[in-house]
Amino acid sequence: MKTNKRLLLNLIITLTIPCIAHAETQSVSTELEKVIVAAPESLPNSKADLSQDDINAMQSRTSDTATLLKGLPGVSLYSSGGLSSLPVIRGLADDRLRIKVDGMDLISACSNHMNPPLSYISTDRVNELKVYPGISPVSVGGDSIGGTILADSKKPEFSNSPDQLLTNGEVGAFYRSNGDARGTNLSASMATQSFSLKYNGSTAKANNYDAGGNFKPAGNTAIDRAPLSADEVGSTAYKTRNNAIDLGLKLAEHHLLQFRFAHQDIPEQGWPNQRMDMANNRSNQVNLAYNGDFDWGILDASIYREKTHHKMQFGEDKQFFYAMMGNAPGMPMETEGDNRGLSLKAEIMSNERDLYRIGAMMQRYRLDDYWEPSGSGMMFPNTFISINNGERDRYGVFAEWEANWNAQWMTLAGIRYETVKMNAGDVHGYNGNGMYQSDADAFNDSDRSKRDNNLDLTLLAKFTRSAMETYEFGYARKTRSPNLYERYAWSKAGMPMRLINLTGDGNGYVGNVNLDPEIAHTFSLTADWHDAEQKDWGITVTPYISYVDDFIDAERCSSGGMMSLCNADNLTRTNGFVYLQYQNISAKLYGVDVSIGKQLYQSNHLGAVRGEAVINYVRGKNRDNGDNLYNIMPLNSKFSLQHTKGSWQNTIEWELVSAKNNINEERNEQQTSGYGLVHLRTGYQWNNIRIDFGIENAFDKLYSEPLGGAYTGQGTTLSENGVPWGVTVPGMGRSFYTGINYQF
Ligand SMILES: [Cu+2]
């Protein structure tokens, strides 16, 4: 009783001080947990973590934060722009995952999802990445069916004595030969015993990369604005600048207030699998978080706001070729996103056995998507309104109970309830011509105010049979409501449809106001065998299956109006781009993740050698018609040999990926061939200096990543046949990379 009263009091105090707020800043709470509560490792144990050291070693070879997750069991990537890959967990990607950056639920504000959550935190700023595949606890979930990714920047550090001013920082630079990629990063911080100030900045830029082997897509070289050189992959260049300021205030011992401001400016990012490029992306984020430790447990509160202004246009490798468009010089598209959130979470240790987590969240999201007129033809004289004042608001509450019954059994049970409210205003096309007007009229007459009531459940148990054997198993029911484009993209004219594309397949999409939320029922089991010290060897095997009701997929459309490409021919085409409408279907995903590690050799003289392997298998099926789901990673594996001697590390890595033959016929998905890549890496840490060097794709193989989508990187990409159908986006050829980092 006493505990509950104190909790209530603290909640009231927190709520009445509007400035004090919360992020589910996992890293901070974990730290405090370790200091004060000394709680046992929480469920699920099978989550994957990347520490600062892991991330440091990878920074010089990638500027794309999502790619840091590559190689973790169950994780793959939809490749897209050079900074904006979309992580996939066991076949489920994008909005199907809950991705939090410093506790903020960020949302992609673009009809091509060019600015996904992880693109907002640069690789040098991210300090910790946690992946909860599949059955994530309700306390880190919500409005997602595939799992959770938490990306956190470094928590503030304070000095230990009143007369000491703590100052430190880091400066670094990298260079990668393929695409001439280069960048720098700098951080500097100063702190007293109770106040900390930190600045963090980074830049990265790259030209188009070259594919391995020999790449030259036929059919569109004559209309290149600037002819590409041999093997050059169009629309893969990028340029980014990130700045962040973090303030930390220790209110008392174990009571921390953090204020973070981050500004991102991407003046250019090409898209090899979309018909437009990112011409500019500016975002500002403010985030105020409180984290406190009490004798009953932990309290987190946060309030945040993120505003994005996103612009698309044709980059250097794309162009407009339409004389019929009235010599339009290009096609400006703008998107503005405004995202505000509030969350509260308490973790209560009631006794040795029981730990409770309760929480609430609110999110208010607004999106405007509009395309200004261009030229004097079809895109004239009005602004095309794609999404008018789109609203997507979430209100959620959850309760979770974790119990340590004895040395062998641990359980976790959670329930989460969310209401998602959506709406969008009236729209119109560039003009009153038949093809825009009838679709706009139908949309404007429809009932677009939607309210989804979503219930999530998680049940997990862990059985430790011996020091060498643990089993973790569970069930989750997870729900995701449609996003604004899936519900409200309205035009069935060919060109606007080709600009609504969240997957990079080159096809055209139209929304569906009658979509229902998707509900996944997931079962999984993780068996973990290892030596008693967990140092020598380990094998982890996780089979899983997920039945998804009302999975938001797409079906070809046939009943478009005048000039629409939703026609009879669209229904039967097997070798061209197609036009689809989002639809609920029944789906099933299943597979297994395996990871194996073994110490192979050890001597004082030569150091240690460890072998590791990760093998992923996943299948995705449409239960209604037997088709395969789109963009499902074929069987893939990564084998590595790691040599460590003192602070010197050498790695040889084999990446083996099978051919993708299980393709989605509805989208005319393209097959990809199997391939094997070899990467070589070495890293050395010498006092405060870290130097990395390596070769990616050492044998310069030509390959296409299975989830890289359709190549639309060069030519008159906006017209349906301005790009040849059937070309996949080639991956990067051989690249030498080097990076240096100095901590002071
Ligand atoms: Cu975009």
Strand segment tally = 31
Name every ligand kind in the structure. Answer: copper (II) ion
Shape: globular
User: Counting H and I runs of at least 4 residues, what is the number of helices?
Assistant: 7
Radius of gyration, in angstroms, nearest whole number: 25 Å
Explain how this protein is built:
With about 750 residues, this protein is mostly beta strands. The protein has 7 helices and 31 strands. The chain has helices at about 1-15, 25-35, 50-60, 435-445, 485-490, 495-500, 570, and strands at about 50, 75-80, 85-90, 90-95, 100, 105, 125-135, 145-155, 165-175, 180-190, 195-205, 240-250, 255-270, 275-295, 295-315, 335-350, 355-370, 385-405, 410-425, 450-465, 470-480, 510, 520-530, 535-555, 580-605, 605-620, 635-645, 650-655, 675-685, 690-695, 735-744. The protein has a 22-stranded antiparallel barrel. A hairpin with a 3-residue loop joins strand 10 (about 180-190) and strand 11. Residues about 1-40 have low confidence and may be disordered. It binds copper (II) ion. Copper (II) ion (CU) binds near residues 110, 112, 114, 310 and 312. Copper (II) ion (CU) binds near residues 110, 278, 310 and 312.
Structural topology:
Elements: H1 2-16, H2 26-37, E1 48-50, H3 52-59, E2 75-78, E3 86-89, E4 92-93, E5 98-101, E6 104-105, E7 126-133, E8 147-153, E9 166-176, E10 181-191, E11 195-206, E12 238-252, E13 255-269, E14 277-294, E15 297-313, E16 333-349, E17 354-371, E18 384-404, E19 409-423, H4 434-445, E20 450-466, E21 469-480, H5 484-488, H6 494-499, E22 508-510, E23 518-530, E24 537-556, H7 568-572, E25 579-603, E26 607-622, E27 636-645, E28 648-657, E29 675-686, E30 689-696, E31 735-743
Parallel strand pairs: 5-8, 22-25
Antiparallel strand pairs: 1-7, 2-3, 3-4, 5-6, 7-8, 9-10, 9-31, 10-11, 11-12, 12-13, 13-14, 14-15, 15-16, 16-17, 17-18, 18-19, 19-20, 20-21, 21-23, 23-24, 24-25, 25-26, 26-27, 27-28, 28-29, 29-30, 30-31
The protein binds copper (II) ion (CU).
